[in-house]
Amino acid sequence: IPVYNCTSGAINPLTWGQFVTYVVASLRKYPMENALWYPGLSNWDYAPVNWICQVLVHSIPAYIMDMSAFLTGNKPVMRMVAKKMHKALKVLTFFATHEWKWSNDNVLKLHDELTDVDKKTFNFDLSTLNWADFMDDYVQGTRQYVFKEDPGTMEEARQHSNKMFWVQKCLQIFLFVVLARFFVFVCFVDVPVNVQVTGRT
Fold first, then answer.
1. Residues 144-170: what's their mean pLDDT?
2. Long-range contacts made by residues 98-103, C-beta under 8 angstroms, separation at least 24?
3. Which of 29, 102, 142, 164 would be a feasible disulfide site paired with 38, CB 3.0-4.6 Å?
4. Is the pLDDT of residue 191 over 70?
5. For residues 39 and 27, what is the distance between their CA atoms, to the nearest angstrom?
6. Which of 18, 68, 44 is nearest to 171 (CA)?
7. Could you tell me the CA-to-CA distances from 169 to 37, 38, 52, 55, 166 in Å, in that order?
8. For residues 180-193, b (16+ Cβ closer than 10 Å) or e, as one string?
9. Residues 58, 82 contacting (CB under 8 angstroms)
């Protein structure tokens, strides 16, 4: 039985680094309404570094935001959001850290057998796919058809995203100052030790 793999890896590959760059750019260009955080993604080669980043960027800010929500009489939800996000990322870990190669020789052969008219009508030539444009369309489609958000609210969503950018920067500066002061205290501050010497005469 002939197998036709319509894949892009052999003719128009997309690396994880490129994926992160394109997705973040598209999310910032077409942000979601009432986003809880400024769009951003990062990928690390080492699990301990990734865990540290999750704690610093996800867990600690989530606790701080939930504490603020509790003190202002709102419902704390950020810890639950962070927990669900970490669970989803854990599921994706296997696929993100392994590589598969698929042969698409049959698809290429089929494409070569098409007439010029059919190539335009049934365009499945992935070598011409622009990944940046694809991600723009993907994010806009997700926003409109999955999250049911009105395209007319895009400008308002962008203004909200800009606010989240400054909230993120302020929180990062706050955490940096706290960690820096802690580091200085632990490494450079001498703790006086009282030694009492007793003796018999």
1. 92
2. 101/9, 101/10, 102/5, 102/7, 102/9, 102/10, 103/5, 103/10
3. 164
4. no
5. 6
6. 68
7. 11, 10, 18, 17, 5
8. eeeeeeeeeeeeee
9. yes
